[in-house]
Design a protein that fits this description.
The structure is a homodimer. Chain A is α+β, with helices and mostly antiparallel strands. In chain A, about 40% of the residues lie in helices and about 25% in strands. Chain A has eight helices and nine strands. In chain A, the strands form two sheets. In chain A, strands 1, 2, 3, 4, 5 and 6 form a six-stranded antiparallel beta sheet that branches. A three-stranded antiparallel beta sheet of chain A has the order 7-9-8. In chain A, a hairpin with a 5-residue loop joins β3 and β4. At the A-B interface, β4 and α4 of A face β4 and α4 of B. The structure holds a DNA duplex (30 and 30 nucleotides).
Chain lengths: ~220, ~220
DNA sequence: CGGGATATTGATTGATTTCAATGTGAGTGG
DNA sequence: CCACTCACATTGAAATCAATCAATATCCCG
């Protein structure tokens, strides 16, 4: 049983609203219950009913699926501000786990669907959100399909940098294994490729989780 | 300039409606202008404004993007009945081409967006459609990430079979190159893997475009 | 019956995986 | 404060799968 369902979000205290009513993320903040998940806790599992919509407040979330023999594909990482948990059908196609201690706000999906019926702004936002997820999935597809290890790592670093406070360095919340499973590589290849990028002075590995992008142009060139 | 814009769909004669008003595909059929594209014609190009929504009537469509050095990734194939052309932003992230002679119906996106505002059924359908595309993209991601050539081909064949009239055989509208670019493999690997599957009697290559699935269980086992 | 595009098959190369060992860093308890 | 430990990361050597290079083969169409 996932931790998400061990609690009942509805009975948790509501947090005071912080912004525009009517907007989806606003509604999430206003009506959402805050939940905390420790490192590696499951937020929802593959195949479980998709009852809630989530927004990351602090920490990082990964969604993933397992192949029968244990190979894992990570579908996306969600950073603070990201909304996740939207699904095509009634069931989650991926499972979601906290990477490191993570706080999310949660609202019932049905709440939104009700809202969307009367509130065209929310309906529009739900569509925009879905479209954004679709675009990201397509981008990820491109990355997995025909790129070399070096290109994948370069794309990944640039992608993370886009979302980082400082564009010239990234703090990776996830392990090498997570990166590998996201990029369709092995942990060894990720490690080797990073060292290789350091050798050509495209990056600097300040520590294993903190990477400085010394030569953004070089990375962009690799991004193909 | 893409052929799609060489015509103006609005001046083409409207076809009589054939079904439920209010439904999205119904509206597409009713209000949509029919357009024909010869083999390999571009329906829309990457980076062009996403002004229309399309539905395949006859034929097959592929959406693809090119990497800088010519590598191509096919994002999806659309068969008769499929709706495509929805986009996150204002611009197409992929280009779309007809595989073989193809007929589509087209409506302006703005028409739908107007409709969606007043008609919650259409709004709901747009969301469902987006969600379906997202699910497919995620599925495709899985296929590209950590699967062997054999697993990719098996998945692909099963996926095509699901949509075929007879589940025990598939007629492939696309070339080996298209399959390769969809699966992130080379044409040679696709070809070799198909012969290999024939050798183990999982399939039979009646002709290069017509494949009989002799042993669905074996393919499912490979699907991992 | 060409002729060009499409597909298959073969030989070889090469990138990434796999197997294996070593290194590093954070947290714990002595 | 240091030694210990465990998880995580890096590095090395060998094996493997798919890509590449190259040659036929087949199909479709005029």
């Amino acid at each position: 049983m996932s931790i998400a369902r061990a609690f009942n979000p509805e009975v948790l205290s509501l947090r005071p609203g912080t912004n525009a009513p009517g907007s989806l993320t606003g509604a999430l903040d206003m009506m959402g219950a805050e939940m905390r998940f420790p490192r590696n806790a499951e937020i929802f599992g593959e195949g479980e009913p998709a009852e809630y919509l989530y927004r990351v407040v602090r920490g990082t979330v990964r969604i993933s699926t397992l192949l029968s023999d244990g190979r894992r594909q990570i579908g996306a990482f969600y950073l603070p501000g990201d909304v996740f948990g939207l699904e095509a059908g009634e069931l989650h196609a991926f499972s979601a786990e906290a990477i490191g201690d993570t706080t999310v706000v949660v609202v019932k999906r049905s709440t939104f669907e009700t809202l969307a019926v009367s509130n065209r702004e929310v309906a529009q936002e739900l569509r925009t959100l879905l479209a954004m997820h679709l675009r990201r999935a397509q981008q990820h597809m491109l990355l997995l399909g025909r790129k070399t290890a070096q290109e994948r790592i370069a794309s990944f670093l640039l992608q993370m940098a886009e979302r980082a406070p400082a564009a010239s360095a990234v703090d990776l919340p996830m392990s090498r294994q997570d990166i590998a499973d996201y990029l369709g590589l092995t942990i060894e290849t990720v490690s080797r490729t990073l060292t290789q990028l350091e050798h050509i002075a495209a990056i600097r590995l300040a520590s294993s989780r903190h990477i400085e992008l010394c030569n953004r142009a070089a990375l962009l060139r690799m991004d193909a």
